Amino acid sequence: MFLIPLIAALVGAAFAVVVGRQYLTRRKPYQAIWALALAMFGVAAAFETVGQLAGWSDATYKGYYLFGGLLNVGWLGIGSLLLLATPRVGRVAVIVMVLISLICVVAVLISHTNSTLLKAQVPPAGAIDVPGALPAIINTGGSLLLVGGAAWSAWKSARAGAPRNRVLGLAILAAGAFIVAGGHTLARSKGIYILQPLSEAVGIVAMFAGYLVIEARRELVSSKARTA
Q: For position 73, which CATH number holds?
């Protein structure tokens, strides 16, 4: 069972490194935010791997919940917003998300975990007493921005006659984001908690694949320019 979150952790970390390196050369703000959010995803999946392998503790579950249950989807959504909105709106959104993140850190630090529920392989809802409104607001808003932003960009690219790899990559990325968000929602609403780590692993692999498809043509063009 621990192999599923381990795959998610490794893919999330690789994804963060790729986007982070691109930010260092292109200096696009959304790349910095996505790299940060993807690093959070990888850290959350690493905590989940430890929890699955060695049993959950107060520290491992709080780490997983903070970076995975609260922060990474919201920050991924902010990255998507920076692609679609004006710089001023983007700056305001980043400031708001920073404040929300500080609230999340405090909420998790002062929270209590349920030792009985932590004995489950995938702890169910109620394993931590952070107010439910906090993850609901952050993850709903972040998911809408992430999935909606990718889907909107794919539609616009298709309408504008963009290269096929860009349209296809955006569609795959949107599908991956939907898998992560949908898996979490289904797991919590139906109580099928195994869907949570599974959707994370499948979703992040799809998102990374979509991103690589988008970047494939850019790298090809760049390579040709260097050899010309």
A: 1.20.1070
